[in-house]
Amino acid sequence: MSQSAREEILAKLKAAPKAKPAGRPSMPPLTELSWDPDQLIANFMANLTAQTGVVHRVKDEIDAKAKLAEIAAEEGLTTVIVSTDAVVAPLNLTEWGKEKGIKVLTAKDYTDRDAYKDAVFMEAQAGITGVDYAIAESGTIGLIHDKDQPRLVSVAPITHIAILPVERLRPTYERVTDIVFADKSNLPSQFTFTTGPSMTGDIQGGQFKGMHGPRKLIIILMG
Amino acid sequence: MEIRTEQFVEIAKKELKNARNKQFLSVLPLAITISRPRSMQSFPDPEAANEYGRAVRAEAVAGMPELLEEFEKNALANGAKIVWAKTAEEANAFVLNLAKERGIQYVTKGKSMITEEMGLNDVLQESGIEPFESDLGEFIAQQLHKPPFHIVGPALNIPVEEISDLFIAKADMKEPTTDPVKLGYAARLYLRDKFHHLAMGITGVNMAVAETGSIINVENEGNIRMNKSSPKIQVSIMSLEKVVPTMADAMHMIRLLCRNCTGQKLSAYISIDSGPKKSDEVDGPEELYIIILDNGRSEIYQDIQAREALRCIRCGACLAACPVYCKIGGYPYGWAYSGPMGQVLNPLLLGLEKTQDLYHACTLCGACKSICPAGIDHPKMFLYYRVQEANSDKKAAGGFITNKTAKFFDLWRWGTTRAWRWKMAVKTARPFVNRYAKDGTINKTIKPVEGWFRTRNLPAMARKTFHERWAEINKKVTSDQ
User: Fold this and answer.
1) Which of A27, B221, B238, B455 is the most exposed place for a label (fewest CB within 10 A)?
2) Residue of B51, B253, B283 to mutate, testing the A interface (most A Cβ within 10 Å of its Cβ)
3) Per residue in B228-269, pLDDT tens?
4) What is the pTM for the complete model shown?
5) Strand B233-239 to strand B287-293: parallel, antiparallel, or no bridges (unpaired)?
6) CATH 3.40.50.10420 describes domain B37-299
7) CB contact under 8 A, A155 and B180
8) CATH numeric code, A52-199+210-222
9) What are phi and psi of B288, to 5 degrees?
């Protein structure tokens, strides 16, 4: 079925009269590109906060861990699942959890996909991940999903805490996709942009957070 | 989904009397006419941003066959499986066979207009595979067996009491509540269990990027991300026109899509898939099927004017802008696509003869055209359909152009193409026409054109025409000097 369908559809499209579009105007200027580092941070925070995301600024990894402990206490977290990406791994959160009396899970604790899914859906009260790139234009975080950044960690638990090194902040989406999609022979299986917590307005237009994904998005901006 | 486009007038009449929907429709456009322009203003030059988007869509439609080939090549290189389907039936059959082959009990779905168009839910349901819509609004509409009221918020109009009863009956909710947050939470818990044990997830596609072979989904709830993360099989269905040339083009179109759709700079989640999960990854699909569905579009593509309809990015901005939609809501359009976009798309996908009332239910005010980020000239499309209808076999077109109407317009043309004939006709008609006037308004039917007066009133004809008065005034002024 599919081979002949393919040939037929393409042949039909190609046989159609050609239209020549008027041509593209130049891409309208993006003022974000002229922001200095302070403006990037300020705009990132303002845009994210407008979407009810919460941003904490800390100066280094030690402070980031202290802030994490503070958040865990505030939110009453006893079990969390963490990614093992390049931002989070150096923090050694398993050790941190032992100190603070918090059960820290990672996907690598499970050899079985179903057991991992049980943990991420049923056990973890929060997912803690790093951020690969963040975007100031809309207060967005970008995650490259791979073996160290499982997809469900940032979407299944009711709280998502993301650690963002300040040097990973970029002005616009294109500045990020140009990097992430540069090597066409090895694209990430999934790349996601997240802007604020999960939300819906589907019942009478009233907005509420945490529809299927996290109800809270907390960013620790580091550096 | 049952196609009811032929009952447009009937359903519209009913909806005009639906107090609850009317009340809702009086608020919706107001909310959107505030949030949409405000979010567009976050562009330094909103009109330039729109123009660029329109050019991207024009280019994408013009280069569609080549872009689809490029997309396919790159998606295959990423490890995705590409399935081409000529018709909705073929695509449905593929999904059904795959589900049966893999012993799938149930599927969850992201909100997708294309699966509404295909009627996929019915096909799966009939074969005992339960499809769960997982977008909250779509879930409610599905459980109530109602068509989407609005393409972005399919159940926006449903009262909370009705949702509460529904969730107690069908979504394991224990206590009745009118709190939308509690209702949403009940749906979260119910669907969460489905996501947790999901074996096959089905999504639509907002954009397909030719240069990388990636597919992109735009959403706020996170249900689509669940559909693409939890199960081992992912099926994503796209129609031909979803393909765009580059990732940068996709990013710009997403800027426009989110602002026009919900007044956001960016929706909560944008997820971009390039192939299935890699072998060392713990979640994501082991198999990613991308179905490229034609369903009549390659036929539409043969006609350069009709092809313009394929620019649509399904943002839904035209709905709230439309004075007709804002009176009657989404139900009368009778199918997946409603409002001006439905009036443009449904006639092409279902046939002009089944959708006459849709493209006639328009005053050609052009509000939709003025804001469309894809550059569709809706009024031009409607006129194009009307011309085709008029030129086609009169009987096949449902006899809309009756002999009487045709004769009337022949006479009209004869009378209006010479000034002296027009002047004479006006003079002769005035006393005759004004006999029907009451308090300066004609609202009674005048015989040869009674149909016209069914929905319109005219002011009575003035005692003198402008030309007559002008001549008199001129004479008076000249003599005064």
Assistant:
1) B455
2) B283
3) 999 999 999 999 999 999 999 999 999 999 999 989 999 999
4) 0.90
5) parallel
6) yes
7) no
8) 3.40.50
9) -115, 115
